[in-house]
């Protein structure tokens, strides 16, 4: 049953030399749930996401999807939007999306079709033949989300996907995320924008010093006096 699937981050720890980045980080995200990841700079959000993705190894602990460990080999199941963004500036939007889809194993025909579909869904189809560097930052971010979706991932992990975006792009991207969630995909995104987190998320996890200090619905966090945490988390 697809709706029973969950992404489990099970007591993950990670150090960079003397710096403890994650210290027993633990939470679950269910299929069909939008999970907001909130915390100040350096709290460990990006490190957690890179470990979920499999590009960074944990020192201890494990990440599982649907009961099985997530590894670099299962990487293609995850759609990732990195904080530093990762588009090739001189590649055309369409070429870029097709290339990424191919990289994740889609056939040429499927890659072409997925590139079209997702650029339309994100409202950048008119820029399909333009170099990425010619686009506004907002449109580049839309392309970046399309890039995370183009290979039909089972999980979406998005690092600050809305940062610096204009309200129209926020609406377009939120709508796409809601649709994916309705299809039974778990979505995890980090954000400093509490209004967005409140609007979009089923549950919110608050991260401090590499640990999950609270994890619940926004309403429950408020009811239990955790509003303090919510308000002060992102700084
Ligand atoms: P931000 O919002 O700034 O991206 P974050 O919550 O994503 O912050 P991380 O980037 O995961 O936090 O960083 C967690 C901790 O690990 C911080 O103390 C950071 O300085 C440290 N750190 C992250 N990457 C490295 C690295 N490659 N080498 C050394 N220390 C690192």
Automatic annotation (TrEMBL):
Major location (coarse): membrane
Family named by the database record: Belongs to the ABC transporter superfamily.
Subcellular location: Cell membrane
Record keyword Ribonucleoprotein present: no
GO cellular component: plasma membrane
Keywords recorded for this protein, A-Z: Antibiotic resistance, ATP-binding, Nucleotide-binding, Transport
Ranges where the ABC transporter domain occurs: 7-234
Name of the molecule in the record: ATP-binding cassette domain-containing protein
GO biological process: response to antibiotic
Species the sequence originates in: Streptacidiphilus fuscans
GO molecular function annotations of the record: ATP binding; ATP hydrolysis activity
Bilayer topology annotation: Peripheral membrane protein
């Amino acid at each position: 049953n697809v709706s029973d699937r969950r992404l489990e981050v099970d007591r993950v720890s990670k150090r960079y030399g003397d710096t403890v980045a994650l210290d027993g980080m633990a939470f679950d995200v269910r299929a069909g749930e939008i999970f907001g990841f909130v915390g100040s700079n350096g709290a460990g959000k990006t490190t957690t996401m890179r470990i979920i993705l499999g590009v960074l190894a944990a020192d201890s602990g494990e990440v599982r999807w649907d009961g099985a460990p997530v590894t670099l080999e299962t990487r293609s199941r995850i759609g990732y939007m990195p904080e530093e963004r990762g588009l090739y500036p001189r590649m055309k939007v369409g070429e870029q999306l097709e290339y990424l889809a191919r990289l994740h194993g889609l056939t040429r025909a499927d890659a072409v079709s997925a590139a079209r579909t997702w650029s339309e869904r994100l409202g950048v189809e008119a820029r399909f033949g333009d170099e990425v560097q010619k686009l506004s930052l907002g449109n580049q971010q839309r392309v970046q989300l399309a890039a995370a979706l183009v290979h039909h991932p089972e999980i979406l992990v998005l690092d600050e996907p809305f940062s610096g975006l204009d309200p129209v792009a926020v609406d377009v991207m939120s709508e796409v995320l809601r649709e994916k969630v309705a299809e039974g995909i778990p979505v995890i995104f980090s954000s400093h924008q509490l209004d967005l987190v409140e609007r979009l998320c089923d549950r919110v996890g608050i991260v401090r010093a590499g640990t999950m200090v609270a994890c619940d619905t926004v309403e429950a966090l408020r009811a239990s006096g955790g509003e303090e945490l919510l308000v002060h988390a992102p700084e």
